[in-house]
Structures are given as C-alpha cells and as structure tokens.
Automatic annotation (TrEMBL):
Gene3D superfamilies: Zinc/RING finger domain, C3HC4 (zinc finger). GO terms for molecular function: zinc ion binding. The lineage of its organism: Eukaryota, Sar, Alveolata, Colpodellida, Vitrellaceae. The keyword Transmembrane helix applies. Keywords: Membrane, Metal-binding, Transmembrane, Transmembrane helix, Zinc, Zinc-finger. This is RING-type domain-containing protein. Pfam families: zf-C3HC4_3 (PF13920). The chain crosses the membrane at residues 25-46, 52-71, 78-100, 106-130. Residues 137-159 are annotated as: Disordered.
Length: 243
C-alpha cells in the first residue's frame, strides 16, 4: 500500500483490501494529474496565455490537496477534491470548446493539459469518493471480528448426530437371602382364617419387599424381580417372624 506509514495504526488496521486498492488508485490519479499539468506548463508555456497558467496551476493546487487527502484517507478532503476536479473540468472544458469555435484554434485542448486524461482522472477520483462514502455508512470492524466472521462463513455446518445409545449395566441377579422357605414347615403353613400370600394364596406372607412394603411368602419373594402388586423395583427383602 502506497504511503502506508502516513496512516494512523487504527485506521490502517480497519482498511479493507478493497479500500487500500481505491486509496492507491486515488494517489496515482492525483500524482498523474499533477505531472500532466506540470508537463503542459513546461511544453506550452511559450504561448504565454493566461488561461494556460490559470488552468494548470489550479489543477496542480487542487490535485496536491487531493493527494494529501488520499494519503491520509480524509473523507472531506477527498470530497472537496472530487467536487473541485469536476467543477474545474466542466468550466474550462466549456471555455476551451467556446474558444475553439470562435477562433478555430483547436490546439487549445492540448495546451490546457490533455482533456481526455483529465476526464479519466476525474472518473477515478469520483469512484474513490463513492467507495469511501459507502464505507463510512457501515460501522468499522476490528480485524478479529472480520476473521471470526470469515471463519464462521467458511466453517461447515455440523450434521445432526444420532443420540447416544443407552448404556445397559449388567448388575446380575439380586442377591437372594438365605431363608428356610424351601422346606415347608409348620411356620410356613397358613393358619385357618389368616391372610395368605397375595401371589400363591397358600403360604404365610413372612417377607417384606423394600421399598414398597408389600408382604409375600418366602418362596414367591425369591422368584420376584419386581413387586407383583405395585410393579415397583425390589431393593431388598426383609424376613419377618411372628411370635
């Protein structure tokens, strides 16, 4: 970038690559304008025309101001330079055209620096001004934010993954307490009129299921994994004894 040291560090970091290219184009256009006007003064100064001095000196002064504006990237200076270039171009082009029609001396277009070159430079300067005006409408962003936005745009969208499969733990069968329910003795026999086991209806309910608290007989309790009454899980079995 031309004259990069003339920019403040915050402004240099905020300028995008496109802004730097337009800034370089404006600097080159202003330098070319100054050079063409100086060359016209040197080549055609022998004619000693006041218009030659006025036109080219004014273009040199205005282009010097515009050069400083492009180097420092100052919006209002560039706006003044754009308006001045187009104003001078229209005024003196009309004057030169009127003079050529009246006197028949068409060499005046060469004397007042190349008109085609002035038009091309004015177009470049106007495009630079439009870009800078558009850039001022958008808030400046830090380079880190621009990199994050670029990374977000380049990062592919992750595909939805399948839910993880449930983990099944094999804890094995619940421990079975050693009871004497396998042998049907006098204690397991159901007395007449007493409530029996709600499952087999044959034996005395002497085992309490924890945590639901339902009572079943010892043989049925050994075969249950869940409570047959409330369908709740069985954490342990408590043997009860009747006096």
């Amino acid at each position: 970038m031309l004259f990069s040291r003339c920019l403040p560090p915050p402004l240099a970091r905020q300028l995008t690559n496109e802004s730097k290219r337009w800034r370089n184009a404006g600097i080159l256009a202003a330098l070319f304008q100054i050079g063409s006007c100086a060359l016209a003064l040197f080549l055609y100064g022998w004619r000693r025309l006041v218009t030659v001095l006025i036109v080219n000196v004014l273009f040199i002064i205005v282009s010097s101001v515009g050069l400083v504006g492009f180097i420092k990237w100052l919006f209002w200076v560039i706006a003044f330079y754009t308006a001045s270039v187009w104003g001078l171009l229209v005024v003196f082009f009309g004057y030169a055209l009127l003079w050529a029609f009246m006197s028949g001396d068409w060499l005046i277009f060469a004397v007042h620096s190349p008109i085609v070159t002035d038009v091309a430079i004015a177009i470049v300067v106007f495009l630079c001004f439009l870009h800078m005006a558009k850039e001022r409408e958008t808030p400046p962003q830090e380079p880190a934010q621009q990199e994050d936005r670029t990374t977000d745009q380049e990062a592919p969208t992750p595909l939805p993954s399948a839910p993880p499969a449930p983990v099944v733990l094999d804890v094995g069968p619940l421990p079975q307490p050693a009871t004497s329910s396998d042998s049907i003795g006098s204690r397991d026999r159901l007395p007449e009129g007493a409530p029996g086991c709600p499952i087999c209806l044959m034996r005395r309910p002497d085992v309490c299921l924890v945590p639901c608290g339902h009572m079943v007989c010892g043989r049925c309790a050994d075969q249950l994994m869940v409570c047959a009454i409330c369908r709740g899980g069985i954490q342990s079995r408590v043997k009860t004894y009747s006096v």
